[in-house]
Amino acid sequence: MSTPTPLEFLLMWAITLPPLLASLASFLWGRWTKRSSTKRKIQPALRRAWFVINRWWSNTRQASAVVMQTAPMAIEVRPSHESVVAAVEFPDYVPAPQVLAHNDFWNRLVGYATIGASLISLAASIILWRLCFGDAPSKALSFSLPFTGNLVMFYVDSLSLYFLLLVNVIAFCASCFTGRYLKFESSTVPAAENSSSEHWQFHMFFNLFHTSMLLVCIVDNLILLWIGIQLTTVVSAPLVGYLREKREPQEAAWKYILISSAGILFALLGTILLLSAVQQSGEGGVIGWSQLYRSLSAVGTSGVKVSQPLIEMAFLLIVLGYGTKAGLFPMHTWLPDAHGQAPYPVSALLSGVLLKSALYALLRLFILTNLALNGAREPPQNHFASIALVTAGLLSLIMAVPFILSRQEIHFKRVLAYHSLEHMGIITFGFGLGVPIALFGALFHALNHALTKALMFLTYGTIESSYVADPTWDKRMRGILRDMPAAGTVLALGGLALVGAPPFSVFLSEFLILWGGIKATTQAGVANSTVALVIYIVAIGLFVLSVTLIFAGLVQHLGRILLGRGTAISAERPRESILQTIPLVLLLITITWFGFTIVPLTGLISSGVDILCKGVC
Amino acid sequence: MRIARDEALTLLVFCLVGFFTMRFFDSQSGIVLLMVIAIATAVYNINSSTLKHKLYSYIWQSASLVPLAMLRFFETTDGGFWLVALFLAVRVFVIPILMALATVQRSSYARDNAYFARQSTEQSRSWLKDAQEYWLIYGETRVSSVFSLGACGAFIGLAYLVAMRVQSLGRAPESPVGLGAAISLLLIGLFAMINERELPSQVVGLLIMENGLFLAAAIFITDPYFLVSFWSSMATFFFITFFILWRFVPGVHSVSGSAQIDDQNKLKEVVDKPQASAISEPGRILP
C-alpha cells in the first residue's frame, strides 16, 4: 500500500469530482431559474449582452470589409433599437437572446455537462489504470480526506479500480441517452401536466447517483461503505419515480426505497457484529478495510482468535442486507418494478452498475469474513462464507426461471429485470465457488452483464421512444425488426448475448464459471468429501438447467416483440437515425470483442482474483 | 402542543427510570430494564390499531433508548454516547412532525376531494392538530391481534435462541440479552412493515427496525472511533426517513389518491403496453 503521487492524487479527484460538480451545477441552475424574479433579472441582462456583442461584431466586420474591400460579401446593417438589435448576416450563428433565456437551451447545456462529467471521470479512470496500475496491478493507493484524520479514508486497489471502470463506462453510455429520453418524455406529457419538465432535477440526481457509486468503490471505512450504498438508494429512488404524475413509477420508487432501506439495516447490523468480533480479538479502533485486511491476514499464525459463530451470523446478515441491494433472492422484489419503471438510461445504470456496487460491498466483507474464519490456516478451511454465496446465487438463478419462462405478455423491461436476478445469481455463484478460475469468471461476468444489460435497456428505450409518434404504438410492440431493422438487429443480437450464446462475452464468462464449478467438484472428489461432491454436482446441474431454460425464455420474449407484422402504413413507421444507433453498435462490438479476447483486462482481473482469494483459495 | 408535552414527559420518565435503576442496582440492570421496555413498546406497536398509538409507542421506544445510551456512557466513559443520546432525543421530537407533514394532505388532489376539503375548511385548527385527526384514521393491520402477539413471541424466542447459540458456541463477549433484543426489534419491525395496510404505518415499522440497530450499536460498540462512524451512518438513515416522509408518502398518496398499500397495485397489471397503462387513475379514498 502506498501514498499516491501528485498525478495519482489528481486523477483520483478527476474521477470523483466531475459528476459531483455537474450535479451541483444542475442544482444551482434549477434553483436559479425556478425563481421568477431571477428570470426577470437574467433576461434583460442577456439581451444587453447580446446587443453589445452584436454591435462589436458588426463594427469589426464592417471595418474588415472596408479594409479588404470585398464587394461580394453582403453586409446588411439594420437600424438598431431596443428590441431589434443590429444584426449582421454572418455565417457563424450566434444564438438569439430568446434562445439564451429559454429553458431548452440551458436544459441541453446541463445535459452536455452530465455527459462531459461522465467522460472526464471515465478518461481519468482509464488513465489511472493504464499509467499507474498498468505495470503494477497489485498496487494499492491509500489517502484520506483533508481535515478528517483517519475517519474518511480512501483506498484504491485493482479490485476497486475494476469496479470504478465498470461504473464509469456504464455511466458514460447512459449519460449519452439522457437528453434523448428527456426530449421523448417532454413530448409525451402535456406541458401543463408536466411538473418534471425542468430537467435539472433529473441531471442532478443522475450525477449524484454516479458520484455515490464511485464513492462506494473507493471508501476504506466499512461504515462509510454502508453509507455509500445507502446514498445510492436515496439518490436513485427519485430517478425511478421521476414521472411524478404517473402511478407506476411512484409505486416502484416506494417499493424500492422501502425494501432497500429495510434490507440494508441487516447489513449494518452484520457489519457492526463483524467489526465488534474482530475488535474484541485485539484489533480495537480499526474499521478500515485495508487495515483489517492486513491484520486479519495474520490470524492463525499470530494466534489471534475471533468468535466464529458471531462472524458467521454477521456474514449471513451481510448477505441478506447487501443482497437486497444486489437483487439477490429473497429480497429481490423491488428489482423488476424499479428497473421496469425507471427511465431507460436509469434502468441501464440500476441494472448495470448499482447491483455491482452492492456486490462490491459484499465482496469486501466476504474477503474479511474468510480471513477472520481462516486467516493463514492450512486446509481444511472454513467454507461458510462460500457456501452462503453459492446458496444465495443458486436460489436467485432458480427463482428467475419461472418469471422469464412465463408466457404472459409482461413488459419487456421487466423481463430484462428478471435477467438481472439471474445474472447476479450467476456472479454470486461464481464467487461462492471460491476457486481462482471461477472468481476470474465471476469478475469478468460482472463486466459483461453490465455492458450487455446497458445495451439492452438503451436499445429497448430507444425503440420505445421512436414509436411514440404513432398514436396506437402501444398495441404495436410487434415486428420491431421490420419497422426498425438496425435497432431491432442490435436488440436481437444483444438478447442472444444476454442469454450466453457464443461468440459473445457472456458465453465466455459463464463458461469460465462452469469450469470453476467442475474444478471445485474435482477438488472435493480428491479430498474424499462425498457430501461436498454431491452438493457441487447438484449445484452445477441446476446451474446448467436454469441457464438453458432462461435461454429458451428470452428467445420467446424476443420473438414476440421482434417478429411479426410491423406497422402497416409506411408513413407511420418509426424513423431510425444513425446517430442513435452508432453508440449501441459500438457497445455490441465491445461485447463481441470481449467474447474473443480479454487480454487488455487480464492483469487487472487477475490481480482482483488475488485479493479475493485471500482466506478461501 | 400536547404531543410535544407527552414526548418530553416520556423522555423524562425513562431517564428517571434508568437513573434510579442504576442508583439502586447497577447500570447493567438499568440497560436490561430499558431493553425490556423497548421490546414491549414494539409489541404494543404491532397490536395497536391506529397510527396515533403506533407513533406514541415508537416515541416511548425511542425515549427508552436515550437513557440506555446515557447508561452506556457511565459504563464506558465514551463521550460519543452523549452524541447518540442527543440524536435519539432529537428524533423523538422530529419524527412526529415529519409524520404530520407526510399525512396532512396539501396536494391538489386532496384540496379537490370532499373529505379532505371539509377538514381544511376548519381554519382554527393547526396542521399538526389536523394530522393527529388523520392518525386516528390510519393504522389498519392485516392480521388479528392474537396472531400478531403470537408472531412477536415467536420472533423474540427465535432472536434469543440465535443469540444464546452464538454465545454458547463462541467467545461472544456480551450476554445474549443485548443481541437478542436487537434482533427482536429488527424482526418485529420487519413484521410490522409487512403487516401494515397503510404507507405511514409502514414507515413506523422501518423506524422500529432502526431502533433495533441503535440497540445493537449501544451494546456492541465500545470503540469511540467506531461510534462516530456509526453515528454518521444513523444520521444518513435519518435523512432517508426524512426523504421518505417528505417526498414519497405524500407523492404516492397524492398520485394514487389512497394511502392503502393494497391500492398500490398498478405494477401487477403491467403488460407490454407501458405508456397506455401508465395513465393515472384515482384510487380508493380513505373512509
User: Helix content range of the residues of chain A, please?
Assistant: over 70%
Distance between the termini of chain A: 22 Å
Task: State the assembly state of the protein chains.
Answer: heterodimer
What's the total helix number of chain A? 22
Number of DSSP strand runs of chain A: 2
Strand order of the largest sheet of chain A: 1-2
Question: What do the pLDDT scores of chain A average to?
Answer: 81
Order of helices and strands of chain B: HHHHHHHHHHH
User: Mind telling me the C-alpha Rg of chain A?
Assistant: 27 Å
Largest protein interface? A-B, 71 and 66 residues
Describe this structure in words.
The complex is a heterodimer of chains A (617) and B (287). Chain A has 617 residues and is mainly α. Chain A is built from 22 helices and 2 strands. In chain A, strands 1-2 form a two-stranded antiparallel ribbon. In chain A, helix 5 crosses helix 22, helix 16 packs antiparallel against helix 18 and helix 19 runs parallel beside helix 21. The radius of gyration of chain A is 27 Å and the shape is globular. The C terminus of chain B is likely disordered. Chain B is mainly α. The relative contact order of chain B is 0.12. The chains are: A mainly alpha (617), B mainly alpha (287).
Structure, briefly:
The complex is a heterodimer of chains A (617) and B (287). Chain A has 617 residues and is an all-alpha fold. Chain A is 72% helix and 1% strand.
Write the layout of secondary structure elements.
The complex is a heterodimer of chains A (617) and B (287).
Chain A: H1 6-34, H2 36-68, H3 97-101, H4 103-132, E1 141-144, E2 153-156, H5 158-175, H6 178-188, H7 200-218, H8 222-240, H9 247-279, H10 289-296, H11 308-325, H12 334-341, H13 344-373, H14 384-405, H15 412-433, H16 436-466, H17 480-483, H18 485-498, H19 505-526, H20 530-562, H21 578-596, H22 599-613
Helix pairs in contact in A: 1-4, 1-7, 4-5, 4-7, 5-7, 5-13, 5-16, 5-22, 6-16, 7-8, 7-13, 8-9, 8-13, 9-11, 9-12, 10-13, 11-13, 11-14, 12-13, 12-15, 13-15, 13-16, 14-15, 14-20, 15-16, 15-19, 15-20, 16-18, 16-19, 16-21, 16-22, 18-20, 18-21, 19-20, 19-21
Chain B: H1 2-24, H2 27-47, H3 51-76, H4 80-103, H5 108-112, H6 114-121, H7 127-135, H8 145-169, H9 176-195, H10 199-220, H11 224-256
